[in-house]
Amino acid sequence: MTTSSEILVINCGSSSLKFALLPKGSSEPLLSGLAECLGLADSRIIFKTAEGKKTESLNGGSHAEAMEALTRFMGEHEWLDSVVAIGHRIVHGGERFQASALITDEVLAGIEECCALAPLHNPGHLVGIRAAQKAFPKLPQVVVFDTAFHQTMPKPAYMYAVPQRFYKEYGVRRYGMHGTSHRFIAGETVAELKLDPANHGILIAHLGNGASASAVKNGKCMDTTMGMTPLEGLIMGTRSGDIDPAAVTFIARKEGLDLDGIDNLLNKQSGLLGISGVSSDCRALEEAAAEGNVDAQLALDMFAHRLARLLGGLATSLDRIDALVFTGGIGENSSLLREKTLNHMKVLGFAVDAAANERAVRGNTGVISQPGSTTALVMATNEEWMIAKDTADLAGI
Ligand code: ADP
């Protein structure tokens, strides 16, 4: 039994629904979990609480059934009545959404309009919102956009050098992703290092299966590595990141690939997986590399080289670098990739403290640079907390 106010955070994809129930102001969820394979015969939902993990079959059910199972589970734990608002993660808010918003019919129409820019994500978010509205008709619901934090990028940073009519007619430009994480890390870094909120420069490397880096000046994003879609920029688990577009047309002609074939190649078969032929997973690659697999070693070296190269480029949007922060599953855990990256960045004054880098443990903020060098930090991101905070603020809770 609880008497506090809880925020339910929902991250809904086309076939999955992730959730976290956070007491207001807390970063420790009472409940978290995931419904997956929605709409398929083996759809299931996994609940994680302090008591442990529980998996239930959804018997082929989809988002509505997942939401029903979630509300039933919350009811059994007497959490249902203390939920005061719901926050939804939305991948793409286009140019329309510069910040989080309370859901209204107009906001829903705006998210619908952005479906063309994120056809694999936004339609799933809308399904999740409708299911949540049905399950919690009386509660305020808020949307938090992955793109919103990057809306402060200046025009020269977000335009592509193609005829401008593509921007004007279809919205073809760089938007950036992972904005909720970049915003969280920027705010925490200012607090942690006691920087002046109105005068600072921070580089952020959010490195998970998807990865992006950004340059934040005085609280505002000035540039980021992801583009119109999450394919641009860094090398990722299965995504190529930057590649000469002419190399893509060359490969397509050689292999007879159509547009879907190219999409699949660059999004699903490239990146760490494509280079190594071993895995998209950093842990598996580190193991293979330690055993002498040269392709895994190359994949890790390329990851670090690309990251250092793009961080160097991002730095040109700042007046100075107060800190470089590593976050995300790889950023928080891979001392190897942090060290490789920092060793590439001596020109910007970075010098890794090998012992501090090895000591940095997931969940704890830690400086990993030598005294007197440019500061590098490891910090845990918390997108759910950020979504819950925006939700509480906008819902006036
Ligand atoms: P997502 O982008 O899906 O949220 P995460 O942020 O969880 O992904 O990051 C997943 C990545 O983090 C994987 O490549 C995984 O191998 C890597 N990772 C997790 N733990 C470790 C570890 N101890 N050492 C190296 N890499 C790790």
From TrEMBL:
List of residues binding ATP: 18, 206-210, 281-283, 329-333
Q: Where in the cell is it found?
A: Cytoplasm
Pathway field: Metabolic intermediate biosynthesis; acetyl-CoA biosynthesis; acetyl-CoA from acetate: step 1/2
CDD domains in the cross-refs: ASKHA_NBD_AcK_PK
Q: Can you say what this protein is called?
A: Acetate kinase
> From its record, what is one biological process in GO terms?
acetyl-CoA biosynthetic process
The encoding gene: ackA
In terms of domain of life, where is this protein from? Bacteria
HAMAP family the record matches: Acetate_kinase (MF_00020)
Cofactor entry:
Mg(2+); Mn(2+)
Site, Transition state stabilizer: residue positions: 178, 239
So where does substrate get bound? 89
Q: Which family does it belong to?
A: Belongs to the acetokinase family.
Identify the InterPro entries for this entry. Answer: Ac/propionate_kinase (IPR004372), Aliphatic_acid_kin_short-chain (IPR000890), Aliphatic_acid_kinase_CS (IPR023865), ATPase_NBD (IPR043129)
Q: Where is the active site?
A: 146
Its EC top class is transferase
